[in-house]
Design a protein that fits this description.
444 residues, Spore Coat Polysaccharide Biosynthesis Protein SpsA, Chain A, two-stranded parallel ribbon, 18 helices
């Protein structure tokens, strides 16, 4: 078991409070504009749904300089904004601490989890600090399955604009579903409910100093819960409105850390996922309804420019990573990227094959992993550009059908992936020879 020492302030606070039934964690970094609303929604949810339980709200801050921590401690919920209850309420205590260690969301969660364990909490939930659509009901939907239905992990299920969450839709959701056989629609959603026993398992793990401490934390939590047999469900939260970014903007660090975490865990749990076939949806709580969503701006031309440059600049790296037939198709696609952006298409099967090639190359070349992941970014941008062109006229339900089709494509390729993972001959026998020849390109 790894050791993690609470700061002196956190330790004293835990000793003073002595115990809690529920801990809510809110990681932050310069979120003064939005975090007050999040804290008020959390406090109202605790008062409305868990008034007889001892609750602590913990802001784990990464060194904000914009009064974020003051906003947390000063946020107030007026009495008439909370449903009146017949029984006395136990107001939640509110704390704010700076976290230490590797900068990132994972380190913030580690502090929250350690405090929850110290307080012997029965359940813990975490929510993002930039949410504008959070309501008191979210707290009930994240915690009730843990406290009263025996679940260990509650993932969010919400509606997002079709161009929001493109890393989830194009890579993380279909790949995680294919590998572990459980369909969790938002595996890196940001809002989760966690049981005490799963929380202790997280703290036992030895990978807190890796990309898990940064953007990799959400997929790490989801994967460990699914792969290790904890009871997993989803709760429908409605819309997720937050500070969304253009998917063509510089998301390379996030992509590298999230996908790198998926690939690392893929190696750890290889014996397990090779034995799983097909997929089934995780149980879903909450009432599903349609909601209005804010549009997400996209710059398709910038994505295609990055892809065109990469077809020249990354030629040698892609020769190592991609199988010959996939590389040939990608090169032809690069030549067509100069045409009408509305007709540019990176087909589901080609994209899925490329992602699985990257997973295999990541495993085969440990010294070149950073370079491998960075070289995935322009291909990802090409996929997003293609997705935008395909879905521009489609409504939400039709877009979801498209994503479902991509998931099924990944699942159809799983037997071939398993054979290649075990080193068995594949139809593309030239891939291994090419990879061996170009290994030096990655490991310099």
């Amino acid at each position: 078991m790894t050791s993690f020492a609470l700061s002196e302030d956190a330790r004293r606070a835990a000793e003073t409070i002595r115990g809690a039934d529920i801990v809510i964690g809110i990681p932050s970094y310069n979120n003064a504009r939005t975090i007050g609303h999040v804290v008020r929604a959390v406090s109202a949810g605790l008062a409305k749904y868990f008034s007889q339980m001892r609750a602590v709200v913990i802001n784990s801050d990464g060194g904000s300089t914009d009064q974020t921590r003051d906003a947390v401690l000063s946020a107030r919920v007026e009495d008439n904004h909370v449903m009146l209850l017949e029984t006395p309420m136990m107001p939640a205590q509110r704390l704010s601490f700076p976290y230490h260690g590797v900068p990132g969301k994972g380190s913030a969660f580690r502090l929250v989890f350690a405090m929850a364990k110290e307080l012997d909490a029965k359940a813990c939930a975490v929510v993002d600090s930039d949410l504008r659509s959070i309501t008191p009901e979210w707290i009930d939907l994240l915690l009730r399955p843990v406290l009263f239905a025996g679940f260990d992990f509650v993932a969010p299920y919400y509606q997002r604009h079709k161009y929001d969450g493109t890393i989830t839709n194009s890579i993380v959701y279909p790949l995680t579903r294919m590998l572990y056989g459980v369909s969790v629609r938002q595996p890196i959603g940001g809002e989760f409910g966690i049981s005490a026993r799963l929380l202790r398992r997280y703290l036992e793990r030895r990978d807190w100093e890796t990309d898990v401490a940064r953007f990799g934390i959400d997929i790490w939590m989801t994967t460990v819960a699914i792969a290790e047999g904890y009871r997993v469900c989803q709760s429908f939260l409605g819309a997720k409105l937050h500070d969304a970014k253009d998917p063509g903007a510089d998301l390379s660090a996030m992509l590298e850390q999230v996908v790198g975490s998926v690939f690392i865990l893929m190696q750890e749990y290889a014996p397990l996922w090779q034995e799983r076939h097909g997929s089934k949806p995780a149980e879903l709580f909450g009432f599903r309804f349609d909601v209005g969503l804010e549009p997400v701006p996209v710059n398709v031309e910038r994505m295609l420019q990055a892809f065109r440059r990469a077809c020249t600049d990354l030629r040698e790296i892609w020769q190592t990573v991609l199988s010959p037939h996939t590389l040939s198709a990608i090169r032809r696609l690069g030549e067509s990227a100069d045409g009408n952006r509305g007709t540019f298409r990176l087909a589901d099967e080609l994209w899925a094959e490329a992602v699985l090639d990257f997973a295999l190359a990541y495993r085969a070349h440990p010294l070149g992993r950073g370079l491998i992941l960075r070289s995935l970014t322009p291909l990802y941008l090409a996929r997003v550009a293609s997705f935008v062109g395909e879905t521009e006229p489609l409504v939400a339900a039709e877009v979801e059908e498209k994503i479902e089709g991509l998931c099924q494509t990944f699942e159809a390729l799983k037997p071939a992936l398993a054979r290649r993972w075990r080193g068995e001959p594949s139809e593309d026998a030239g891939a291994a020879a090419d990879a061996e020849k170009n290994t030096a390109n990655l490991e310099v």
